[in-house]
Design goal:
By secondary structure, the chain is mainly beta. It contains no helices and 7 strands. It is elongated and about 45 Å long.
Length: 96
């Protein structure tokens, strides 16, 4: 807690069972910001954690996407919301 302000966070575990390494390609955050390093790659056959935070009443809301590092033809996208006064939501998509 900074300066008496409660932090709202969302941690997302990503299990990459593929042989592809994914790199950050973009995001749109309606509220909140990255707490983890968004440039950190999601390595092939690994478990990664990404984290977002917010001190706003609206919590954390946004979308982020990654692309495979070699061919740049496979995308991994996630959408999330963790408002302070409502239930969190999360969805992810992988495709060509």
């Amino acid at each position: 807690m900074e300066n008496g302000i409660m932090e709202n966070r969302i941690l997302i575990e990503i299990r990459n069972d593929s042989d592809k390494k994914f790199v950050f390609d973009g995001d749109w955050l309606r509220t909140g910001e990255w707490k983890s390093d968004k440039t950190q790659a999601i390595e092939a056959e690994s478990l990664s954690v990404i984290e977002f935070k917010s001190t706003e009443v609206k919590g954390v809301r946004g979308v982020a996407w990654y692309v495979d590092s070699e061919e740049k033809d496979v995308y991994f996208s996630l959408v999330f919301a963790n408002p302070r006064l409502q239930e969190p939501t999360f969805a992810w998509f992988v495709g060509l």
